[in-house]
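Exam prep: given the inputs below (a chain plus zinc ion), describe the expected output before reading on.
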Amino acid sequence: MAASPSISTLLRRFDRWATPVLLAVGVAVFVGEVMRPLRRRTRPRAERWPVNVGLAAPSLVGMRLTLLPAMVGLTQVAARHRWGLYRLNLPAPVRVLAELLVLDYVSYSWHRLLHAPFLWRFHRVHHIDLDMDLSTGWRFHAGEMLASIPYRGGVPALVGVRPSTLLAYEAVFEACTAFHHSNWGLPIAVERALARIMVTPRAHGIHHSVVHRETQSNFGVVLTLWDRLHQTLRLNVPQQELTIGVPAYPDPAEETVMHLLELPLAPHRPWARPDGSEPERASQPGAVSQLAE
Ligand SMILES: [Zn+2]
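Solution:
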């Protein structure tokens, strides 16, 4: 049997094809949100983007140097020991489909864990952005990347996902993250059709709402299937009624790279405005699973 490629060989190949693809997706989404914005901005782009880039840079470097090699390395351990799916003789297309579904369910369930108290320390850095656009899709604390290694690397390995499928899914994950964080106002008919299957900008906008009940919905990354199964799907909130952010962090002066990097160490704040009131929405018209404008 031929020796399997090393982690660095697999990642160099991944860099070669995924970098141009993801750059193209980023440019397309950026053009979309500039030409056809979905929600009104509350802060100028020039104020938020340098901060978001300042957080994204260490996070992306951390992902490439730690999370990706760890995930690939763990799937190689699984291949050597023939864990999980390696022991079933599945036809090739069924095997790939099973792997992709497992990977996307890992993303959904990991995102739910990020909203639990300990991991929220990191994930709130992403959520307290006062607007949501393409740059929010890369604004994660580097600690969140490190913290995700045991779960996002361990579970796929135990299930027997192959390194090639893992890296292909990772590119889809990144492309979808850029897309659904964008402020791109797609025609409602197009987005309604897409939201039957995948997470869209309007759907994910609701996840970034200051209304707690709304933040506790739409955890999916690629497919909306998992939110449907767990009854965490909520599509009936009109975008013009959304306020993006976390009510305890309304102050743009707190939005500095240094402050945000230190935020995981800061005490927990309750889900309320500084005056103690909690944002609510009076009316919720329409079926929860019908995407509102
Ligand atoms: Zn979240």
